[in-house]
Amino acid sequence: MVMVIEGTGLGYSYEFDGSAVLALEDVDITIGKGEFVTILGQNGSGKSTLVKHLNALLPIQKGHLCVEGLDVRLQDNIWKLRRLCGMVFQNPDNQFVSSIVEEDIAFGLENYGVPQETIAKKVKEALHSVGMDDFGKRALNTLSGGQKQRVALAGVLALDPDIIVFDEATAMLDPQGREEVLNMINDLHKKEHKTIVMISHYVDEAVLADRIYLIHKGKILKNGTPQEILTNYALMRSAGLLPPIPVLLYYDLKASGITLSSCPLTNEELVEEICRLS
Amino acid sequence: MQIELEEVSYAYEEGPVVLKNIDLSIEEGSFVGFMGRTGCGKTTLIQLIAGLLVPFEGKVLIDGKDINSKKYDRSELRRKVGVVFQYPEYQLFETTVEKDVAFGLKYSGLDREDIRQRVKEALETMGFCFENIRLQSPLALSGGEKRRVAIAGVLAVKPKILLFDEPVAGLDPLGRESFLQLLSHLNNEGTTIIMVSHNADALAECAKRLIVLENGRIAQDGTVSKVFFDIDYMKSLHVGVSTARLVSDMLLHEGIAVTKDTVRYDQLLCSLRTILKGKGSL
Amino acid sequence: MKDLLVGRFIPGKSLLYQLDARVKLVSLLLLLLAIIMAETARQYLLLLGAIGMILVLSAIPVRAALGSLVRMWQFFLIVFLMNAFFFTDANPLWTWGIFHLSFQGLAQGANVVVRILLVMVLSNILTCTTAPMEITFAGERLLRPLGCLHVPVEEVAMIVSVAIQFIPILGEEAQMIRKAQIARGARFESKNLLERATSLFPLVIPLFLAAFRRADELSLAMEARGYKNARERTRKRPEPLHAKDYLFLGSILLLSLFSVSIRG
Question: Global pTM?
Answer without folding.
Answer: 0.85
